[in-house]
Amino acid sequence: MTTNTITQTSPETEAIFRLDDPRVIFAKAVALAGAVIGATRADQLDNRTPCSEFRVRELLGHIVTALEHVAVVGRGHDPYGGPVVVREVPDDGWLRAWIAAAHDARTAWSDDATLTRVVRLPWAEQTGAATLAGYVNEVSVHTWDLATATGRRPQWDSQVLELALDAIGQVLPADGRGERGAPFADPVEVPADAPLIDRLVAWNGRRP
After folding, report:
1. Nearest CA to 21 among 32, 11, 6, 35?
2. How far is the CA of 176 from the CAs of 31, 186, 195, in angstroms?
3. Residue 143's closest CA among 30, 52, 55, 42?
4. Nearest-angstrom CA–CA distance, 203 and 185
């Protein structure tokens, strides 16, 4: 492996990705989320989170489902077009569920064509690459939610946060969010030199 490529091997193919490939950046976000999920204790599952409608258990269900949606999108389907599937995950099974969903998402996005395919979602029509960048935002913000609720301090990757902030800034304006029906609070003001993670969660309506 060289310093500017990452090799991913599957039973069928071996794909070499550039380090700025959104799939690589997404994989970093997923790995960090997995670390925080793995550190979450059973006695923390009823903790409140910054995402006011979720306690930790519900938040875990939400982000696992989001990761499953990523796989559906990678296969060219609409993740919001079918019935919602409610799954029971045991208290000690969240990391296993996350890893399984991560492997499925990686397989679904292994073809380079997924990056240029047009994806139509309820809030946007854009390329697969832009859609995946949006999911980098969702995974990263919910990782922060989970870490905050469980007292963790992750080591954030600046490349991940920069892509997430750029992606959410393009689809979610500062003004008129309620008029657009966006499920986000207004952005919270933070200093221009605030850490990237603070700027990201603040744009998503969280108070760092």
Report:
1. 6
2. 34, 9, 25
3. 30
4. 9
